[in-house]
Structures are given as structure tokens and as C-alpha cells.
């Protein structure tokens, strides 16, 4: 039978957990309880407004997303951790200002963070279990119905900002989050109760598709990250011109945030850009065949959208690019693609350049 740890032992274990997490590459660790009251109400209001669009999974699990002890019965605490991912060579603004190049959200330029962080969390959970002499531990990285930003805010890792991202005063917002659910009654950290956005609305004002209905309110149906990653069908023609050259995700509300002047570059080699994806010409991206797509996105979170949606996104970006014979010829080569989804968006792109599809 597992011995119940004393308060002193739990305090010591909590200190060890933070040290072990640091050794595994995490920049910050916090612990919170399982009651997410106001966050649960916010989630329900957001769902009721239909702002989740096609993301039915956001509502599918009922209250489990906001109640950790329902998702994993017996959970008493959630250990929340963050890991920086921004590298020093992403040239984000340069690429956004180059309409002939494809912009890919900076978080996905390296290897798939899900696998890397999940492995590190599992290693941390094993160390905790060995030190505690037992217990229950479940690690998550975007892999279950978890309100990760709400949990992180309650664990003191930062505050949920007007752009709905989690921001840390000392590290900005360029980081990943991961969680370990446990039945250990670890000491709880002080929640981050104050918002430090002040009167700034830069993130709301700069959004290309005006996806924010107000501070702290995002209509995902207009968000470019949702449109290029989560949305499976045809993209609203009214939104396409606003998407610019963004072919996978969007970082605008982070790039403009004043707090990100404090963001720290990561030393994690797996987060470094691969296959030249930080800055590749759109015409080259459209002409990838499916095998090339699979090779270039191997081990990357980009692969989850599949080849068809990749071509859809690149076609839109080429419709927004400056007209040239090279652009038109690239689009012509995809004009009769087997996918009706691809054909539709290629035809739109050609029309943008004043070319009547064949």
C-alpha cells in the first residue's frame, strides 16, 4: 500500500519536479487544482456562439475538457509546463512581406512538438512516480480534451491575453504547453489573476481576417490557423484575399505583441527549421507531388492536413501573389487536379490574375 506523503515531503518533491523539468528542457513548471470554474463557463459560451466552427471535438467530450477529474478519475492536481520553441533564424516578418513565399507558422517549422514533449513528460512522470513510490500520472500535449491555457493560467505560468494566447511576462508567448494529471496532492501555485495587456489592442487590430469579435473573444471560423489547418472544405471566397501568403497557420497576433520582445530563443535542435520551409517560393510548394509533400513534412505537424488541403492553401496564397507568368503556369499545372477542392481554389486563384480557367 502506498504511503501517504507528508506536507514536507510534497514540498520537497515539488522542488524536485521543477528541477527535473528544467533538466528535460522545460522553462517553467506550475501546479494547479482541478476546478476551472470561470474557464468552463467561458468555454460553454464560446461553443454556444458556434465559434468553434467544424471543430466538433471541442464539444464532443462534454464537461471533461474543463473538469480534469472527470477526464481522468482521481486526478487531484495538474502539473503545467511550458517549453520555448522560437528559433533565431525564422525571418518571420521578412517572409510575410514576401508575397511570393509561403508563410508557415513558426511553431511547426521543426519536428512535431507533440512527440518530443510527450516523451519528455513521460520521462518526468516516471521520475515523479519513482520518487513518490507510486501514484497515477497521465501526460497530455494537445492529445486529449484539456483546457491547457486555462490550466497554465491557474498554475501561474502566465495570463490568457486579448488574443486568447497565454503570455508570460518574462517569455512572451512563443512556447508550447504540456500537462501531467496526477492524484498526488502537490502544493498549488498562485494563479496568474492579473491581465497585463492594458489598453493595447494591436493583436485585435492587426488580425488579417478580423477574427476577434472583441478582447479575449476569437471566432475561429475566421481565424487563418483554423482555416488552413482545421477546416477541411472550401474556404470562404470572401476570406481568401485576406489570407495573404499564409499557407499553414498564422502568427500575426504574436508577431505584433509587445510582450514578445522578452521571448527567448530555444536551444532545442528539434525545433530548428527543416527542409527550407521557413522561406520557400509558393510556386515550388504548389508543384510538390504527394511523395515530395510526404518527404518534406515527415516528422512535422504540417503533415496532419494532408496533401489535398496543402494544395488548397498554397493555391489561395498564389491567388494573392503578384501576377507573373511563373505564378500562372504553376497554377495551370494544378488546374485539372483529381481533387475538386484543389480545382476550385486553383480556378479562383487564376481568376484573381485575370486568367479564365480552361
TrEMBL record:
Binding of cob(II)alamin, residues: 65, 142, 163, 166, 177, 225, 250-251
Cofactor requirement: [4Fe-4S] cluster; cob(II)alamin
Reactions catalysed: epoxyqueuosine(34) in tRNA + AH2 = queuosine(34) in tRNA + A + H2O
Enzyme class: oxidoreductase
Pfam families: Fer4_16 (PF13484), QueG_DUF1730 (PF08331)
Record has Coiled coil as a keyword: no
Chain sites annotated for binding tRNA: 232
Residues where [4Fe-4S] cluster 1 binds: 197, 200, 203, 257
Keyword Iron: yes
Pathway assigned to this chain's UniProt record: tRNA modification; tRNA-queuosine biosynthesis
Sorted UniProt keywords: 4Fe-4S, Cobalamin, Cobalt, Cytoplasm, Iron, Iron-sulfur, Metal-binding, Oxidoreductase, Queuosine biosynthesis, tRNA processing
Xref: SUPFAM superfamilies: alpha-helical ferredoxin
Protein's cellular compartments: Cytoplasm
Molecular function terms, GO-annotated: epoxyqueuosine reductase activity
Domain 4Fe-4S ferredoxin-type: 184-217
Enzyme Commission number, as recorded: 1.17.99.6
Catalytic residues identified in the record: 142
Residues noted as binding [4Fe-4S] cluster 2 in the record, renumbered to the chain: 207, 223, 250, 253
Note describing how the cofactor binds: Binds 2 [4Fe-4S] clusters per monomer.
Family: Belongs to the QueG family.
Assembly description: Monomer.
HAMAP family assigned: QueG
Main function: Catalyzes the conversion of epoxyqueuosine (oQ) to queuosine (Q), which is a hypermodified base found in the wobble positions of tRNA(Asp), tRNA(Asn), tRNA(His) and tRNA(Tyr).
Protein name: Epoxyqueuosine reductase
Native organism: Candidatus Marimicrobium litorale
Gene: queG
Amino acid at each position: 500500500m502506498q504511503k501517504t506523503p507528508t506536507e514536507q515531503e510534497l514540498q520537497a518533491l515539488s522542488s524536485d519536479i521543477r528541477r527535473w523539468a528544467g533538466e528535460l528542457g522545460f522553462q517553467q513548471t506550475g501546479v494547479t487544482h482541478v476546478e476551472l470554474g470561470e474557464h468552463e463557463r467561458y468555454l460553454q459560451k464560446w461553443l454556444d456562439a458556434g465559434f468553434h466552427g467544424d471543430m466538433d471535438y471541442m464539444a464532443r467530450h462534454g464537461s471533461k475538457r474543463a473538469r480534469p477529474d472527470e477526464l481522468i478519475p482521481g486526478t487531484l492536481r495538474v502539473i503545467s509546463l511550458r517549453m520555448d520553441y522560437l528559433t533565431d533564424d525564422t525571418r518571420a516578418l521578412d517572409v510575410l512581406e514576401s508575397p511570393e513565399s509561403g508563410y508557415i507558422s513558426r511553431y511547426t517549422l521543426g519536428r512535431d512538438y507533440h512527440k518530443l514533449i510527450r516523451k519528455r513528460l513521460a520521462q518526468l512522470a516516471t521520475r515523479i512516480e519513482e520518487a513518490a513510490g507510486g501514484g497515477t500520472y497521465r501526460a497530455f500535449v494537445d492529445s486529449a480534451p484539456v483546457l491547457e491555457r486555462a490550466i497554465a493560467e491557474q498554475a501561474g505560468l502566465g495570463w490568457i491575453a486579448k488574443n486568447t494566447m497565454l503570455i508570460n511576462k518574462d517569455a512572451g508567448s512563443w512556447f508550447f504547453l504540456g500537462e501531467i494529471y496526477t492524484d498526488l496532492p502537490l502544493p498549488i501555485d498562485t494563479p496568474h489573476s492579473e491581465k497585463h495587456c492594458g489598453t493595447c489592442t494591436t493583436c485585435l487590430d492587426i488580425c488579417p481576417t478580423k477574427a476577434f469579435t472583441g478582447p479575449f473573444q476569437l471566432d475561429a471560423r475566421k481565424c487563418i490557423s483554423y482555416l488552413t489547418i482545421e477546416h477541411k472544405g472550401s474556404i470562404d471566397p470572401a476570406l481568401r484575399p485576406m489570407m495573404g501568403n499564409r499557407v499553414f497557420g498564422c502568427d500575426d497576433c504574436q508577431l505584433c505583441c509587445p510582450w514578445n520582445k522578452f521571448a527567448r530563443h530555444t536551444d532545442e535542435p528539434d525545433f530548428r527549421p527543416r527542409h527550407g520551409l521557413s522561406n520557400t517560393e509558393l510556386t515550388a510548394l504548389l508543384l510538390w507531388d504527394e511523395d515530395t509533400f510526404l518527404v518534406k513534412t515527415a516528422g512535422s505537424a504540417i503533415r496532419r492536413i494532408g496533401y489535398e488541403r496543402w494544395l488548397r492553401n498554397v493555391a489561395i496564397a498564389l491567388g494573392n501573389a503578384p501576377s507573373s507568368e511563373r505564378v500562372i503556369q504553376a497554377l495551370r499545372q494544378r488546374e485539372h487536379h483529381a481533387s475538386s477542392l484543389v480545382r476550385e481554389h486553383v480556378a479562383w486563384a487564376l481568376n484573381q490574375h485575370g486568367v479564365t480557367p480552361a
